[in-house]
Write a structure and sequence with these properties.
The chain is of the alpha+beta class. It is built from 8 helices and 11 strands. The strands form 3 sheets. A 5-stranded antiparallel sheet has the order 1-2-3-4-9, with no helix packed on it. Helix 2 packs antiparallel against helix 3, helix 2 runs parallel beside helix 5 and helix 3 runs antiparallel to helix 5. The longest helix has 27 residues. Bound molecules: FE2/S2 (inorganic) cluster.
Length: about 325
Amino acid sequence: MTRLRNAIISALVLLLGRARRRRPRREETRIVPPQPGHLAAELAVLALLGLSSSCAIAFILVYALGDSIPNETQFLGAALGLALLCLATALILVGLKLVPSEEVAEEYPPHEHPHEQQLIAEVIDESGTRFTRSRFFKLGLLGAGGTLGLAILAPAVSFGPLFRVGDFLQTPWRRGRRLVDETGKPYKASDISEKNFYLAFPEGTSDEEKEQMAASLVVIRLPQKELRLPSHLKGYDANGILAYSRICTHAGCAITLYRAPLFQPDEPRPALVCPCHYSTFDPATGGTVTFGPAGRDLPLLPVYKDSKGYLRAKGNFDGPVGPSWWGVRLWKAQP
Ligand code: FES
């Protein structure tokens, strides 16, 4: 960020502070007579460029706020369309009002005549725009072009969360909330046996709330001596009972398979498996990915057994629930 900020500041300083490096010229030798500035046209061009930037920024804001704005799609189309329209109008105005069209009609000397080259170079040099506020024009053009570029790139954030990451972190789980089955019956720790797989929800949630991504859990029990939870997940289990998010971190399918060998050889260890693309998570090590395309560990909910033996949440998950593009790209195959 610091590098980017320094680069932007340097570019602005260069643009604003750059001295005009033109060849000194004697007015009497000019071919194209100096033209008076066209203040109204210049101001109109600057206003149009500013309007174009504002529309492009509005596009980004509407895109970022998303569903909270009614008729979002129409606003997006209108903002981008107006930004392009204003930019095009500003450029047309520059062409019509600020770029003089001069013609020099005279006999051309022989083609290779060196004076001809010089003459053409001078005509081109002296026929520049009559914009007396050329720095503002450049800034305006840079602003309009830059913000429009950003507006066009904005939809790329749909590849992953950037603006609304909060949605991924909100869950119905709070400290003390009991784990219940599909009928609403609270689980006791004694209900959870090894080699089995249980579906759990937060107590007091409606059927509709149970559909929320972060509501459902898969609950299993492992022998405590088999647990290899990393240090930051110590205390997340209740005597070997582990409650993981049911949503696969690859593309959001529900984890519905539990591979727990019932007889020898009982290796590899028990694993939670997603049926969509066979991402496999090791519950003993904190839901780490051992196979498949998932990019992040399965989030683990800390649980405890209360004085009456019921299973309750200790807090929220250790990470965002659901699929994530960043994890998919960061994950490296386990050696
Ligand atoms: S959604 Fe689970 S592996 Fe793809």
